Amino acid sequence: MFKYTAIFMIFLLSSCAIREEYQKEEIISDNSVKEVLNLNSKNESINKEWYKIFNDKDLNTLLFSAYKTNLDIKQNIEKLKQARYSYLINSKEYFPMIDGGGIYSYSKTNGKNSPLSVDTNDFKAGFDVSWEIDIWGKGKALSKQYMKLVNSAKFSLFDTHVLITFEVINNYTNLRLNQEKLRIAKNNQKLQEDILDIVTNKYNNGVADELALSQAKHSLELVKSSIPEIKTNINKYKNALHLLLGVEPKNLPINLDKFSKNITAKTFKYNVQHLYNIRLDTIRTRPDIRMAEAKILSQNEVVNQAIIDLYPTLNLGASLGFISSSLGDLFNTEVLGYTPQIMTPIWHWGKLKNNIELQKHIKEEYIITYNKAMLSALLDLKNSIYLIEESYKANTSYKKALDDMRNIFYITLDKYKNGLIEFSDLANAEQDYLSAQNTFVQSNANILQGIALFYKATGGGYNFCD
Question: Count of alpha carbons within 13 Å of 466, Cβ hemisphere only?
Answer without folding.
Answer: 4
